[in-house]
Design goal:
32% of the residues lie in helices and 35% in strands. By secondary structure, it is an alpha+beta fold. The protein has a single domain, classed as Aminopeptidase (3-Layer(aba) Sandwich). The structure holds coenzyme A.
């Protein structure tokens, strides 16, 4: 079941995210701040955070937002599937749900940022496999040797 995230989910979502082994500790700390801000005022800015629950446990989540000062452009900040559930189509299903949700809100473009390091090879492949194209790569953005990769997809209600 994909449902709105509540403050009671925070601990489980932090544990799930840390458990993927993909994120650095300071990135997990940032997630805590993002979730705290979301529960304080995120809805005011149109942010959306959804938790995927299975058997009463959080097994994934997504966080996406409209981009200020744009015409219906959205950005995916987080998509996480629990480590023991990865590679079974859950991420693809979540991306589809996100796209449908944004389309229903009138969105037209979805951007996703990620790192260029080998550590994120599977993540970048995941976006490419799901119809996203690499629109820009900002050299040394995160640190020397670690570029920011910006993926984009035009959202349409009919499958491409
Ligand atoms: C990226 C992620 C959301 C994809 O979800 P998923 O449920 O594993 O993806 P799916 O099963 O729908 O698709 C599998 C595809 O995703 C990619 N992939 C990314 N991470 C993977 C993983 N850990 N295991 C297997 N496939 C993975 C592969 O390209 C795979 O395609 P392939 O079978 O052709 O190799 C998930 O693996 C994850 O949470 N990773 C860690 C967190 C992360 O990188 N988040 C994105 C940055 S915010």
């Amino acid at each position: 079941m994909l449902r709105p995230t509540t403050p009671a989910d925070t601990a489980a979502l932090l544990a799930l995210t840390a458990g993927t082994g993909v994120f650095k500790p300071h990135e997990v700390d940032t997630l805590q701040e993002v979730l705290d801000d979301f529960h304080r005022e995120g809805a005011e800015y149109g942010h959306v955070c959804l938790t995927l629950e299975d058997g009463g446990a959080a097994v994934g989540f997504v966080y996406f937002t409209p981009v200020a000062m744009t015409d219906r452009t959205w950005e995916l900040w987080w998509i996480v599937v629990g480590k023991d559930r990865q590679g079974r189509g859950t991420g693809r299903w979540l991306l589809d749900r996100i796209e449908q949700h944004i389309l229903q809100l009138g969105g037209r473009l979805l951007l996703i940022e990620t790192s260029s390091t080998p550590h994120y090879d599977p993540t970048r492949r995941f976006y490419l496999n799901n119809g996203y194209t690499l629109a820009a790569q900002l050299a040394d953005f995160y640190c020397d040797g670690d570029d920011k990769c910006i993926f984009r997809k035009r959202l349409t209600s009919t499958p491409a």
